[in-house]
Amino acid sequence: MSTDLATRETGLPVVYDSDRLALIKQTILPDASDSDLAVFADVCSRTGLDPFSRQIYGRMEFDPATRGKRLLIMVGIDGWRVAAQRAQAKHGIKGHMLGPEWCGEDGHWREVWLKSTPPHAARVGWEYGTDVTWATVLYREFVRLTKDGAPTAIWREKPAHMLSVRAESHLHRKMFPQDLARLEIDEDQPSPTVLDMGAPADSDY
Fold first, then answer.
1. pTM for the whole thing?
2. H/E stretch holding 137
3. pLDDT at residue 30 above 50?
4. Which of 42, 43, 46, 61 has its Cα between 20 and 30 A from that of 4?
5. DSSP secondary structure, 67-95, as one string
């Protein structure tokens, strides 16, 4: 049994044999079935992202509808950056990133968020020549909640960081809609199903 997975350097598919799939099962998806492994490997191949370098993640989550486990696949911020770098090279786009910046209820943007309460919004921009493209996200729309309605642990511990990660992924998607459309599945839906692709993982630091 073999399947295509992506190399970290180029994103070009290479053939991985059953030994490599066994390594994925051992290190990334120990509870996955053979069909789950096949789905995960196929997504890695189609997105050109490497699960061994934290570009794309897979985990099994409890499904309250079936009372069993289901596969959740998420693209980490490293994966978004790699995909965006490939798109920039493809289109010959120059420039540099601005931010992240955060604001509170007053709407004043700050380069550092020092308050103990979460920011209301975050933004990240890309400057090229005299033009700037901004992507802005709101905390109330992107914070991930537990089943009890409270922010998940990483969102409690690092709300400013997590919101800036969301802003950066949206900037990449905004700049390269055709190239990154295949990654455009939102992890932060209330009851995520088996995802073909996903948004940045909550495990990104």
1. 0.66
2. strand 131-138
3. yes
4. 61
5. TEEEEEEEE-HHHHHHHHHHHHHHHT---
